[in-house]
Amino acid sequence: MPAPHEMTRTKTLEPGAEEWSCTRCSRRLLLRRPPAFEKIVLDRGDEWAMHVGGTDGLQPGPVQGRPTAPGDLPAQERNWLAEHGIEWKPGSA
Ligand SMILES: [Zn+2]
Asked: Is the predicted pLDDT of residue 6 greater than 50, yes or no?
């Protein structure tokens, strides 16, 4: 399995709206925090890579090339969700 790409927050555009970019490819996202949660892909970058710290972890179900059982979320992604005010509840989906 290739190493996941790491998304980092690069800009805060306005309160609650942030730009995130990948440290390894050109992927960039515009992220609006809950309750008005929104994800806008500015640049797809390497779509086949797994991106951690980004918003892909918010989507239930299999991630590209990486089937994930409900409740099986890497600690890194759970921490990221927690930082964004989202509590991960395994099995509640
Ligand atoms: Zn990437």
From this structure: yes
